[in-house]
Amino acid sequence: MYLLAALHLIISSSLLLFVVSYNETEQNDIIQLFSDYIRRFNKSYDYGTMEFKKRESIFEQTLRRIDWLNKHRNSSLDALYGINQFSDLTPEEFKKITHLNKFNTTAKKAYPLQKKLFTNQNSVKDLPKKVDWRGKDIITPVNNQESCGACWAFSSVETIEAMYALKTGVLEQWSVQQVIDCAAAPNRGCGGGDTCLTVEWLYEVRNF
Questions:
Q1: Of 14, 175, 1, nearest to 85 (Cα)?
Q2: How far, in Å, are 105, 109, 124, 133, 148 from residue 99 at the CA level?
Q3: Do 107 and 121 have their domain in common?
Q4: Virtual CA dihedral for 116, 121, 124, 125, nearest 10 degrees?
Q5: Contact 156/113 with Cβ under 8 angstroms?
Q6: DSSP letter string, the chain
Q7: What's 91's domain CATH number?
Q8: Where residue 1 falls among pLDDT bands split at 50, 70, 90?
Q9: Interatomic CA distance for residues 59 and 2, integer angstroms
Q10: pLDDT digit string (tens) for 29-57?
Q11: Domain extent for 2
């Protein structure tokens, strides 16, 4: 049967996940878990319709993939996979709503990067195996970009927020919308962008 393997929620990137374990089971159990999924994530599929059966099949494939990935974890420090609001989508549908295919990476040539690496050898010794910054007032709450393909802006801003907090001890939440609207080309708002180009642009304008 399908089992909820944990009662707690885990956060991965910007998505809320709940962890499941997959085993071969009767069709009724699959339908029940999918029905619970529909309620949890406010989906609107009518039972017995072709769309319901299609999404149920995709959902089952997702469960198999999650189970395989979690069984191949080497330690408790490895990523733990679970169900989220995208678990009933095909890879092609996911790419479409997140605009993963739209940004042309060759556009990077239009905005050259300053490739400067700074390494302090003393800072990389005796590092802990795991650090959870959530309890250290270093990272801001998880955001949901929904259907806007602006992961480049969210990740850039949130990284700078964390770096600022580490340096000053002050955690502030800054405007992702400003970066989406104003960042220099080839960034294209909800149509895609590049994190490295964005950070360089922020460094140049210094009005963030």
A1: 14
A2: 13, 21, 36, 29, 8
A3: yes
A4: 180
A5: no
A6: --EE--SS-EEETTEEEB-EE-----HHHHHHHHHHHHHHTT----TTSHHHHHHHHHHHHHHHHHHHHHHT--STTS----B-TTTTS-HHHHHHHHTTTT--GGGGGGS---------GGGGSS--S---GGGGT-SPPP---TT-B-HHHHHHHHHHHHHHHHHHS------HHHHHHHPPTT--TTB---HHHHHHHHHHH---
A7: 1.10.287.2250
A8: very low
A9: 12
A10: 778 889 899 999 999 888 889 999 999 99
A11: 1-95
Antiparallel, parallel or unpaired: β 15-17 and 10-12: antiparallel
- Whether 157 and 76 map to the same domain: the answer is no
Domain boundary among 95, 114, 136: 95
**Domain match, 106 and 45 both:** no
Q: For residue range 168-191, what is the model confidence (pLDDT) as tens digits?
A: 999 999 999 999 998 877 788 888
Could you give the CA distance from residue 179 to residue 18 in angstroms, rounded to a whole number? 31
Q: Residue 79: phi, psi to the nearest 5?
A: -60, 140
- Whether the ω angle into residue 186 lies within 30 degrees of 0, i.e. cis, is yes
**Residues making up the chain, counted from first to last:** 208
State whether 104 and 199 are in the same domain: yes
Q: The pTM is what?
A: 0.63
pLDDT value at residue 185: 76
| 64 shares its domain with 45 | yes
